[in-house]
Write a structure and sequence with these properties.
This protein is mainly β and 733 residues long. It has 5 helices and 44 strands. 6% of the residues lie in helices and 56% in strands.
Length: 733
């Protein structure tokens, strides 16, 4: 009996010790500022794991399932604050309390970026150029549409509705975007024309905009040829209500012959509201807005409304589900081109003045994230994006069925599974697969469909605290209608090196591609005397991108960033005029090259004053004949400054875009004065007051856009916005 007891007791003790050692640890605490106030949505993550958390309304965080017995590096960051970092070791079954205090900082060195690598990482670890805008930037400038926000981001230019990052896009009649737009990580590009529809993205509940420059196809596939834009919406962590009302008027043009509306002012007005709450494992938000704009050009009036909602549910600390949906509707006049320079505000004489365009956009996404342990997490995504538009006028044949009046209905659906495996403390492998399907039924395109299949992987490795390496690749197979399947493999390499504490060097190399849209291949249309014909033989665009950059933090809360880039393109799709019949047709330019550099500057030398500036130089060359690529400016300059004085804040924004050197000169045959163009000089002023009214916070903002009433064009025969006066009131809790 004694021998049995002597054998059993050690065995029991051994089993107990093994079970104890297997028990995970837990870390919790509170994140506050230097005044002791809680910080909401601060990012708390453990390096070398897939574990992390965001603080709630009380500034609290909790991270479970931590591996015991080994050193863990905890990082805590938040926009506007310096990064906190600490190394700790937890014992099996331990629940440790760690409170964190973050210090205010205007520099963005500790900023967390999620778009560049499809996972959260410090800006210092990102090997490519990234620009960000947060909710404060949007609020201060009274921005109500995404395109007006993007015009203020370094290296980004908007040509009418076409997004151009570092010259990647010119103007292709609003079809085929070379920039991929995401909303909370889900793609939002129309299934027919493959373009961005800005009114599909409500700006009132946007928390952050991330712009990743350069080819992103190694992770995101087609359309990420020139870059990726990710719009991140607000997740409520407390009960919140926001209401905003705004109204304004368009000023008269300088020249009397451009005034078409007679006396009085052309006005615009709108209202937005958002409510959100978080109760235990459930969080939700709902937002909506309505805008009415008479426009400064004839037939350019616009009525728009949107409704969007999102629900988050945490089944456990390891499993959570997010479901979002948004719907927008737009009715507008059908403005196209001016009559001539003497009538720049007015449409051609043969234009149907009664024609109206109705469009709708619906976007829905479901995200399910599971943390399988400290080293592995997975995310499943399903998203659907549907767009439709139709036209009608007093001269329409109303005997047609409602379905016969629909000009185009398109749907883009995609499903993605992504895994994140922390292979070690210093290595994270991100991999996944994606399926996509598009369907179009349109008068000018016919009935078309397409599909895409992709797999990807990216390995991020930290060699010590100062050197970060990134390598990845993606395989895509895409096909439209009955055309031949196009298969692509796109790699990417990147390095971020921090030789000194205040300096980060980066370099990247990558391939990109874009499959031509259904509109580019099959469109047969006539608009404003311009006739487009199909070209089903279009090939996929390809690119090779190089970038070298440096980021330096200087005294006086100043950050400098410089980058040199070189992009080689093959089979670049551009609209051209067929000399045989004068029609527009999309063709592959054999070879193109865009080189340039970019300089950005941010500073907040005193707590009451901040300023920033960014300059981008481009040399866009058509290698087939040595000419300058169409619709690419050589110089982009943006500068801003703000001054806080008590409850008042004054700001100024200035934007310069050099004159386009090359356009579609053949279009002057059908559009008089089409070649008249100048550089863009736009200055905006803003003045806001923040206080309290009847116990509620109140913000009142007065804005003057294009304060000097400068007249310019972004595309031929299309006058850009004249001076505008606006007043905005915002309240809530």
């Amino acid at each position: 009996m004694g021998r049995l007891r002597a054998a059993v007791i050690p065995a029991i003790l051994l089993l107990y010790s093994i079970s104890l050692a297997a028990q995970p640890a837990t870390l919790r605490g509170r994140v506050t500022d230097e005044a002791g106030l809680p910080l909401i949505s601060a990012n708390v993550a453990l390096r070398g794991t897939v574990l992390g958390s965001a603080t709630d309304a009380e500034g609290r965080y909790r991270i479970a399932s931590l591996p015991p017995g080994r050193p863990l590096v905890l990082n805590c960051s938040m926009i506007g604050y310096g990064t906190f970092s600490v190394t700790l070791t937890l014992q099996a079954g331990e629940e440790r309390v760690l409170d964190i205090t973050l210090k205010e900082s205007s520099i963005s060195t500790g900023e967390v970026i999620v778009t560049a690598g499809k996972h959260a990482q410090s800006l210092e670890e990102v090997p490519v150029s990234v620009s960000t805008w947060d909710a404060r930037d949007i609020q201060e400038r009274g921005i109500t549409s995404l395109d007006n926000a993007l015009r203020r981001i370094p290296g980004v230019n908007i040509t009418e509705d076409q997004i151009n990052i570092r010259g990647s896009s010119g103007y292709s009649r609003a079809v085929g975007s070379r920039v991929l737009l995401l909303v909370d990580g889900a793609p939002v590009l129309a299934g027919d024309a493959g373009e961005v529809k800005f009114d599909a993205v409500p700006m009132f509940n946007v928390e952050r905009i991330e712009v990743v420059k350069g080819a992103g196809s190694a992770l995101y596939g087609s359309s990420a040829l020139g870059g990726v834009i990710n719009v991140i919406t607000t997740e409520p962590r407390e009960s919140m209500l926001r209401v905003r009302a705004h109204a304004g008027a368009w000023d008269e043009p300088r020249h009397d012959q451009w005034i078409w509306w007679g006396s009085g002012a052309q006005w615009m007005a709108g209202m937005d509201a958002m409510y959100g709450d978080a109760r235990g494992p459930l969080a939700y938000s709902i937002a909506g807005g309505l805008r009415r704009d008479q426009g400064y050009r004839q037939l350019d009036d616009n009525t728009e409304w949107n409704l969007n909602g999102r629900v988050w549910y945490r089944f456990s600390p390891e499993r959570n589900l997010s479901v979002s949906s948004s719907y927008s509707s737009n009715e507008r006049g059908n403005w196209v081109f001016w009559r001539d320079l003497a009538h720049a505000m007015q449409p051609p004489a043969d234009k149907d003045l009664t024609e109206r365009v109705h469009s709708t956009k619906w976007h829905s996404t479901a995200l399910y994230r599971v943390t399988h342990g400290p080293r592995f997490a997975s995310t499943s995504r399903l998203s659907v994006y549907r767009t439709a538009f139709d036209t009608e006028s007093d001269t329409s044949d109303f005997s047609l069925r409602p379905s016969d009046k629909v000009q185009s209905t398109a749907m883009q659906a995609s499903a993605e599974w992504q895994g994140a495996w922390a292979m070690s403390r210093d290595q994270l492998l991100t991999f996944g697969s994606e399926l996509s399907y598009s369907w179009v039924d349109a008068r000018i395109y016919g009935q078309r469909d397409g599909y895409g299949v992709a797999v990807y992987a990216q390995d991020d490795v930290a060699l010590g605290e100062r050197l970060h390496l990134s390598a990845g690749a993606r395989f895509d197979a895409t096909s439209i209608d009955t055309l031949e399947t196009d298969m692509q493999v796109n790699p990417r390499l990147g390095i971020a090196w921090k030789p000194w504490s205040e300096t980060t060097l980066r370099a990247s190399y990558g391939w990109g591609f874009r499959s031509p849209s259904i509109a580019e291949r099959f469109a047969t249309a006539s608009t404003g005397g311009i006739i487009t014909k199909p070209n089903p033989t279009l090939k996929a665009e390809r690119s090779t991108s190089y970038e070298f950059g440096i980021r330096r933090t200087l005294p006086w809360a100043t950050v400098l960033d410089a980058a040199v880039f070189w992009n080689d393109y093959s089979n670049l799709v551009e609209p051209t005029v067929d000399p045989a019949d004068g029609r527009i047709v999309f063709r592959n330019i054999t070879e193109a090259r865009i080189r340039g550099y970019e300089l950005t500057f941010e500073s907040e030398p005193w707590g009451l004053f901040d300023c920033s500036a960014a300059y981008t130089y481009l040399f866009p060359e058509d290698m087939s004949d040595g000419s300058v690529l169409k619709y690419r400016p050589r110089h982009l300059l943006y500068a801003a400054a703000g001054l806080q004085w008590g409850a008042f804040r004054f700001g100024v924004d200035a934007r310069y875009v050099s004159r386009m050197e090359t356009l579609d000169k053949e279009l002057t045959i059908v559009i008089p004065d089409a070649d008249r163009r100048v550089a863009t000089y736009v200055t905006d002023l803003r003045l806001s007051w923040s206080g309290a009214f009847m116990g509620l916070p109140l913000r009142c903002t007065a804005l003057v856009d294009n304060v000097f009433n400068y007249h310019y064009t972004e595309v031929i025969a299309n006058l850009s916005p004249v001076r505008q006066y606006r007043l905005m009131l915002e309240t809530g809790w």
